[in-house]
Amino acid sequence: MSQTEPLIRNISDTARWVAVYRARESERPDALFRDPFAVRLAGQRGEEIAAEVLRRSRNDWSLVIRTYLFDNFITDYVSRGGDMVINLAAGLDARPYRMDLPSSLQWVEVDLPEILDYKEGVLAGEKPRCALRRVRLDLASREARRALFAELGRESKEALIVTEGLIVYLTAEQVAGLAEDLAAAGGFRWWTHDLMSPGLRKMVMRQIGPLLNEARAPLQFGPEEGPGFFARYGWRPVAVHSILKWAVKKKRVPFLLRLVALLPESQGRQGSHPWGGVCLLERSTPGEAT
User: Fold this and answer.
1) How far is it, in rounded angstroms, from Cα 241 to Cα 236?
2) How many structural domains is the chain composed of?
């Protein structure tokens, strides 16, 4: 690694960092999931980023639980006969290779060409368990993504949209635009994403903000309304899982944080409370009250 370039060069590098935590969880005898590809996908740069982040913040457990909760929503969707999963900003996610998925399932990964080229190189020779399609696209291009969503919406009956680790990097205006575009696609019914409160966003930025700012990838989205933010854009929350409370259930947090998790919380506004969760939304039907 060049000594003149930042440790995290761009938002795509955060995928290497997250892959390290998937690799470490996979090595545990009581692992919540197994990702045999994570070590290769993370690479040396991923290990270096993870080491520096760990020096500043010891919240690695939250990324493990986040992955676990997304897995659960996807597994439930597939068990109910879901026909298409669309993973936006898919990064180095290896779910089509590591999860128990039917061969009939259509899985679409969308991300920038560089990160998908890298992943394809690492996974060359590996066989996905379902029908996998990769789309090289800059999701910041609204016209291009709308065209893709319209195409995929015609191909699916009730697709599940996955945006793991994406919307937190966007502005509220950008998230609203994405929500509107997803709701406009006729075949999209479900959307799962992670969310943080304003309090948690500020706390994380105090810890690792300098690294993210250097990469021009600051955390920006932490709505005061919580999951209710999405109602005005055509999506209603149907399930909200607290990352901390699930981390306690799965014994992935230090003792003191287990005590914090005993405090009551709502699924709505969190304000300055440092809250993070994984949400499942359903597209509202026309005229439905939100």
Assistant:
1) 15
2) 1
Domain span at residue 205? 60-283
Residue 88 · residue 110 · CB < 8 Å? yes
Exposed (0-12), middle (13-18) or buried (19+): which is 285, by Cβ within 10 Å?
exposed
In the chain, what is the greatest distance between 2 CA atoms, to the nearest angstrom? Answer: 56
Q: Which tokens is 225 given?
A: 């309304």
Residue 9 lies in a domain: no
Residue 159 falls within a domain, yes or no?
A: yes
pLDDT tens string 6-53: 899 998 999 999 999 999 999 999 999 999 999 999 999 999 999 999
Say whether pTM exceeds 0.85: yes
Q: Which residues sit opposite 237 in a β-bridge?
A: 281
Q: What is the pLDDT of residues 221-240, one digit of tens each?
A: 999 999 999 999 999 999 99
- CA nearest to 11, candidates 139, 104, 109: 139
Rounded to an integer, what distance in angstroms lies between the CA atom of residue 122 and that of residue 126? 9
Closest CA to 85 of 234, 241, 230, 190: 190
276 with 62: CB under 8 angstroms? yes
Contact 199, 270 (CB under 8 A): yes
The gap between the terminal CA atoms of the chain, to the nearest Å, is: 50
Give the CATH number, domain containing residue 150. 3.40.50.150
Residues with Cβ within 8 Å of residue 268, at least 6 apart in sequence: 225, 226, 227, 228
Q: Is residue 183 part of a domain?
A: yes
191's torsion region: left (phi>0), alpha (psi -120 to 50) or beta?
beta
| Helices 142-155 and 172-184, packing angle to 10 deg | 30
φ, ψ at 124 (rounded to 5°): -55, 130
| Within-domain flag for 52 | no
